[in-house]
Amino acid sequence: MKKTSKNIKRVIIYNFIIIFFICIFSSSQKLYANYPNGNTAGFFLRFSFPSEISLGMTGKFDSIPFMFSGVFNIGISTKGFAWFGITSSADWWGLKHRIGEVGNSIAWIYFGPGVEVDIQFGNNYWNLGLAFRLPLGVSFIVDRDWEIFLQIAPGLNVIAIGNEGFSTFGWYPSNTGWSFSKFFRFSGDFGFRYWF
């Protein structure tokens, strides 16, 4: 069983490393025609694993190539509310590709690496973590200024520290050992941005 979990861990890590390098060496072109540019701000809802429901703000500055977000999280367990927290992320869309037109909007797909920092608090619980993530999203541009987006963002917890101890890649040497739910994270976002 230990050998199987180590092999799964290696496969996941190697896949993320390969995807990361593909993103780094992929297209870093400026925003394409018909894709809005400049500054943007918006809101979104997030549903994620481990079980969280979140409300977030997202935005970008014209001079910085990263899409930022700040998220307020509420964790859920079988007994109801479990924790709350704040997450901040920065994503670089290394690949953007126009899919085509959908009604009166233009559809795009984007993909690229990002980093995420989060802090969580609960009853006798706290955790501060740093994660690597790979958002993949579909974006619908309406009237050049409005963007409706839907994205998924799998990620890996790189470092965490809290009341359970210190961990790297989901492994807590002083407490529980390796845990899939402490190593892998997954979120899905739905929201809008306004470009100005």
Tally of extended strands?
14
Q: How many helix segments?
A: 2
Strand neighbour order, sheet with most strands: 1-2-3-4-7-8-10-14
Roughly what fraction of the amino acids lie in strands? over 45%
Order of helices and strands: HEEEEEEEEEEEEEHE
The backbone outline, from C-alpha atoms, is globular
> Which class do the helix and strand fractions yield?
mainly beta
Distance between the termini: 54 Å
Tell me, rounded to a whole number, the average pLDDT.
82
Point out poorly predicted stretches.
Answer: 24-32
Helix content: 10-25%
Biggest β-sheet description: 8 strands, antiparallel, barrel
Radius of gyration, whole Å: 18 Å
Q: Can you offer a commentary on this structure?
A:
This protein is mainly β and 196 residues long. Helices cover 14% and strands 61% of the residues. It has helices spanning 2-25, 180-183, and strands at 40-49, 52-60, 67-77, 80-91, 95-102, 105-111, 114-122, 125-133, 136-142, 146-162, 165-168, 171-172, 177-178, 184-195. The protein has an 8-stranded antiparallel barrel with strand order 1-2-3-4-7-8-10-14. It has a two-stranded antiparallel ribbon with strand order 12-13. Strand 10 and strand 11 form a beta hairpin. The radius of gyration is 18 Å and the shape is globular.
